[in-house]
Amino acid sequence: MAVSTAKDGKKSIPGASGGDSVSGTQGLDRALSVLLQIAASPPPGLSLAECSSILGYSKPTTQRLLRTLTRREFLHYDEDLGVYSLGVANARLGSTYLNRVTLRQAALAAMRRLVVETRETAHLGILSGSNVVYIDVADSPQPVRIFSRVGDAVPAYATAVGKAILAFLPPADLREHLPGTLAARTPNTIVTIPDLLADFERTRQRGYSIDDAENREGIRGFAAPVFDAENKVCGAVSIAGPESRVSPESAERYGPLIRETAAEISALLGAPAGGGPAAAG
C-alpha cells in the first residue's frame, strides 16, 4: 500500500478523497462504532476494507473517519500491515477515568437498584486487617431490617462481605487477614480454618458467599467480590436481611443477582472483560 508524504512531513494514508456525506452526529456515532469494533478485534487490527464493511460507508468516507481518529491518537495505523489498532489516547482516557472513579462511586447506583429490587439492605465493604469495614450502606425500606452504619467494622471471617473478599485473595495474603482464633459470634459461625477454607472453595465455585446467620443471629446475607483494573479483589457488595424473609432458598434468586451486581461494579472500575471470580479463582 502506497503512502504519500504531505508538505508538513506527515505521512498520509490512501483512500482519503471522495465518498458519502456524513452528518456530525451520525459520523460521531459511526466513528465510535468502529473504534469499539477495533478494540474488540484480535491483533493486529482491522483493514480499511473491514472497517468500511462494518460502517456501511464507502472506503473514502470510512478513511476520513479513520484518519481523524488516527490524528487524535485514538487509532494507530500500521503502514506495513495496512491495519488499524487502538491508539495511546485510549490508554490516557482510561487512566484518567480510573483515577477519578472510587469504589464507592462505582457502586452507588448498583447498590440502590439492588435495594429497589430486593427491598433488603445492601452493604459495600473493604478489608482492614482481619475486619471488614462498611464504606457504604443502602438501607432496606422495610420497617424490620438490618441496622448497619458506614464505618462499622466486623470480623471478615463471619460475614458475607468478608468471606467474599477473603475467598479471592492470593493464598499468600490470606493468612494476614485471619485472626489467630475464629471466635464464635453465633452458633453458626465457622470456627476452624479447614472449615473456613472449605467454605471459601464453595464461594469461589458459586461466585458469591453466604452468611448463614454467622455474624448476627437471625440475619442471612449473600455477597460477591468486586475486582479492580488489575483483576484484584478490592471489596465486596452484599444483600442481607432477616431470616424470615431471606431464607436459604432465596440463594437461587439473590446469588446470581449479587454476582451480577458485583460484576457491574467491577466493570466500572476497569476490571478485565471476562475477569472476576472465574479468572481470580
TrEMBL record:
Keywords: DNA-binding, Transcription, Transcription regulation
Domain of life: Bacteria
Name of the protein in question: IclR family acetate operon transcriptional repressor
Classification via SUPFAM superfamilies: GAF domain-like, Winged helix' DNA-binding domain
Entry annotated with the keyword Transcription regulation: yes
Pfam families in alphabetical order: HTH_IclR (PF09339), IclR_C (PF01614)
All copies of domain HTH iclR-type, residue ranges: 25-88
UniProt region (Disordered), positions on chain: 1-24
GO biological process: negative regulation of DNA-templated transcription
Organism: Streptosporangium becharense
Domain IclR-ED: 89-271
InterPro entries per the UniProt record, alphabetical: GAF-like_dom_sf, HTH_MetabolicPath_Reg, Tscrpt_reg_IclR_C, Tscrpt_reg_IclR_N, WH-like_DNA-bd_sf, WH_DNA-bd_sf
Any one Gene Ontology molecular-function term assigned to this protein's record: DNA binding
